[in-house]
Amino acid sequence: MAFARSRQALAIAGVLGLALSATACGTGNDKKSDAAGSAECAAYDKYGDIEGKKVTIYSSIRDIEEDRLEESWKQFETCTGVEIDHEGSGEFEAQLGVRVDGGNAPDLAFIPQPGLLKRFVDSGKLKPAGAETKKTAEENYPADWLKYSTVNGQFYGAPLGSNVKSFVWYSPKTFKEKGWTVPTSWDELISLSDKIAASGTKPWCAGIESGDATGWPATDWIEDLMLRTQTPEVYDQWTTHGIPFNDPKVVEAVDKAGTILKNDKYVNAGFGGVKSIATTSFQEAGVPITTGKCALHRQASFYANQWPQGTKVAEDGDVFAFYFPAIDAAKGKPVLGGGEFVTAFADRPEVQAVQTYLASGEYANSRAKIGDWVSANNKLDLANVANPIDKLSVQILQDKSTVFRFDGSDLMPATVGAGTFWKGMVDWINGKDTKTVLDGIESSWK
Q: Are 220 and 300 in contact (CB under 8 A)?
């Protein structure tokens, strides 16, 4: 899920950046040949002769994020002479299938669910990525990411934007005042929670209400705990039904999450008891941190957009986040996250060129400079990432010890991942026992 922050300073910087680009590479109305001699355009010669060509892109990216997206490839358009026509839609997942089946597929689509990507591969509609795109992707992204766009040994496209879900939000100011230390292990996290609870304050606040998608924040908890109680290989088996949903390993992870989420001594600060989690919107769930009513809130990097206006998000600010600690640090740093993949429904040279460019370090840095964006691209220079939580996210994604796994519910069949899993977690929060909930989800998968 993506949320936008409007920043006047960034907008001004973007305008100035475009003006400088226009000076170096010519204006958007100039021919590629007019800009070809500039040093800034030399980096784009490798994409071949695509002047005068047009490439269409369809995605779920809208509003200010869409403006930033289109700004991010302006120089590429100017220097190569290609035209990129992007359309964002709130009905992307549903309408993409309609368009593809109706013979009106876009050239490229940014698909955020590996399961949806596989569906289009299985239908024979998605085109394998070209050799240059594959080479660029393998140079710039960890194998943990590329496997999610590889089906039956065939690679279909590199990631674009990313998010990190393994975060716990807190108030640096409150921690300093109380003498609390950011935990770096699971035991330290529980010890801190107990300490806060003993002081008379419930340490955790949570909320899983999200309209038709109610329940998804709780599935993120389970996924993070699957990665912390089990091996990455077991996580992979779980998301592909290699083990049943009610396997003892899954029970262990759910019960581990329950030591926090279903603990009356821990939750739900500022809202009520355990059951209030089901009716508290995920947007509002962490807000009590800003008023001192809550100390800890587990939510993804994109939650930075949900704080009240004027809230400073920084290590020395009103709120910040720390890595959701591993249970056994010796097994590496498990990280849960998501993102979208650049996939192609056409294989014309200009389409392959744009697909390759979007996998490049040049693109990652161009987009990062505009602001409010995270990528797992290892060519992304941290100096180009201004937002503190985005910088922390990129550092985690680029950390060699990171073991990344994609959001599990996005890997499962939609009837499970966005259906019975979501609903089952609501039932679980409302008091239904773990076995009954997991048995029900397992039955739905069968």
A: yes
